[in-house]
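User: I'm new to structure prediction. If I give you an amino acid sequence, what do you actually give back? Let's try with this one:
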Amino acid sequence: MNSKNYYNPNGEDILDEKIFGGKPTGFVDFNRSRYKWDVNIYDLMNANTWFPSEVNTVNEKKNFDQLSDNEQSIYKMTFAQLSFNDSAQEEYLSDFRRLATNRLVKSTISLQIMQEVNHSKSYAVLLDACGNSEEVFNLYKYNDALNTKNQKISEQFASYIDGNSVDKMLLSAMASVNLEGIYFLLGFSYIYLLGDKVPGARDMIKFIARDELNTHLPLFSNIYKTIQKENKIETSTIDTAYTMITDAVNIELEYGKYLMNQYPIMGVTESLMERTVHNYANDRLKKIGLNPIFPQTDTTYLQKLVTKHLNMNEVKSNFFEGNVANYAKSSINLDDF
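Assistant: Good question. You get back a string of structure tokens that encode the predicted 3D arrangement of the chain. For your 337 residues, that looks like this:
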């Protein structure tokens, strides 16, 4: 069996290391980056490190018990699905990192892996405080719609992550763009709709959403654009990327419509969900340098909810811990990378 080469003195200069197909020496040098966006995103991730203990969940069970039956069901089904997203992403990132060759990009992915694990821990902390952790984490066993969405997301992740070609690496990155940019957003908005009724859940989601949208989505948007720029990508591969985001939109809307038909809350309609997800999908396509293909409408109320909580930077403190839960604002325009 061949051992891994951790040190290659005949490898490429650090500034020549590509994301895929490079021959790195083994050094990680944050002072010399081929891309710059990797170091910027790493620094922003690091500055915004947070922990679940910084969110006050003392009254979560009391608040949850005061929700209506439909609101409780939305709460549980949302966290059951979101928790899978982060669990799947952590495992996928480990595989993508293993196949990547640029060491600074790999280092940034390492930090994202830590943050995905932190998200999983946050769900456990929140649901334990709520008193329904085991029930929520086992819902996939009893709910076909939830199990189907999880299966379809995992199949999209698994389709191309073998490292056999640069085209497959591009499509693997597309799967992550879909996860960070499509599969979380309706779930985030549902919890924001509950808002002050469950402040622990709302504040936990604020931190998670800021990670996903401020750094994780920009990281894989830039990975996608860079792989495409550095390599001669087949037109058929780009067509497959369009198919993947179309599939992601359908998967997200299928689950969202199921939830709202089963547990209607606060005026959320199928039309509102469709307009929201289509707008998000068009934005994600533009972020990776592709043309929008979905009907575009004015910014929806659900989008405004997510943006409102994304931009808020209030300082909160856990009364018992005394920890400040402030999330740093970016001084970097991530779209300029």
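You can read the tokens as a compact description of the fold. Here is one thing that stands out. The domain at 34-47+59-314 is CATH 1.10.620.20 (Ribonucleotide Reductase, subunit A).
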